[in-house]
Amino acid sequence: MSTVSNVEPNGPDLAVPPEHAPHAKRPSGAARYLSLLGVAPFFIFTLLFLIAPTVYLMAGAFQNTQGRFTLDNFRQLFEPEVLSAYWISIKVSTASAAGGAIIGLLLAWAAVLGRLPGWIRPTLLTFSGVASNFAGVPLAFAFICTLGRVGLVTMLLHRYAHVNLYATGFSILSFWGLTITYLYFEIPLMVLIITPALDGLKREWREACDCLGGTAWHYWRLIALPVLWPSVLGGALLLFANAFGAVATAYALTGSSLNIVTILLYAQVRGDVLHNQNLGYALALGMVVITGLSNGGYLWLRARAERGRR
């Protein structure tokens, strides 16, 4: 006698296709539109404060004061004063990005992998989240009070270490003064960027290296750094773009004593002497291209780093 199962055709032993499962119902049209309504503020904000201003300055860059089409604004970008402003901005951004990337990487490494007390990591990350957004006039005022001619650190060095900081040629209004000021928000930003990458280093990789007779130098040179370098380089590119577009801190700190492109742009758009609004649009468009390339490189390297960790 053959045995026949009493399980019914639609019993629990048969797999139910996901599309027919009760919990897999597709959302209705109204629910889908309601979900889109939740992200509508993001798209409206992006349209009003990113896309529309970019399109407006692109149109203005190809116009003269009478509103006619011209390429003269881009020709003026190659004048010595403008090229010098771009070059100084690139140097300041590169120096602050390099310093911020190196110091931020070391700080994050110490907090994540340095076997420090447990309270240091959350404290560092909390401070980094606040300091990375601290810029503008308050930051400039803080550094003037700290490293100005009568700043706290300047006077302490002169009184107790007998070092006249300004006698060495240093000035808070100079290239290095602005670079050091930018480091205040560049270093915390790098800490926030690189910490998830350091968390992605698996303990099994270090244990496998130790089992094979490798040293710490072998681990970092052959395993950790090849995995981390896209994140480090991408973070440095993001720091470069962040510093290149900063205007409030530089203007409040140096005024017109340092000819960087953001201050020149401000003078062209809002100034009384150098007022040429359309040239300012061309300057801004050049900045958009440079920062766009930096951000594009960062996004590509971040995607490469995520693929490498997987």
UniProtKB/TrEMBL annotation:
Coarsely, its chief localization is: membrane
Q: Which InterPro entries match?
A: MetI-like, MetI-like_sf
Where would I find the ABC transmembrane type-1 domain in this sequence?
86-300
Q: Where in the cell is it found?
A: Cell membrane
A single GO CC term for this protein reads:
plasma membrane
How would you describe this protein's topology in the membrane? Multi-pass membrane protein
Mention one GO biological process in which this protein takes part, according to its record.
transmembrane transport
Gene3D superfamilies given in the database record? MetI-like
Location of region: Disordered: 1-23
Pfam families, sorted: BPD_transp_1
UniProt entry keywords in alphabetical sequence:
Cell membrane, Membrane, Transmembrane, Transmembrane helix, Transport
Query: Superkingdom of the source?
Result: Bacteria
Q: What are the transmembrane regions?
A: 42-62, 83-110, 130-152, 164-185, 222-241, 248-267, 279-301
- What's this protein's family per the entry? Belongs to the binding-protein-dependent transport system permease family. CysTW subfamily.
What is the designated name of this protein? ABC transporter permease subunit
Originating species? Paraburkholderia acidiphila
- What lineage does UniProt assign to this protein's organism? Bacteria, Pseudomonadati, Pseudomonadota, Betaproteobacteria, Burkholderiales
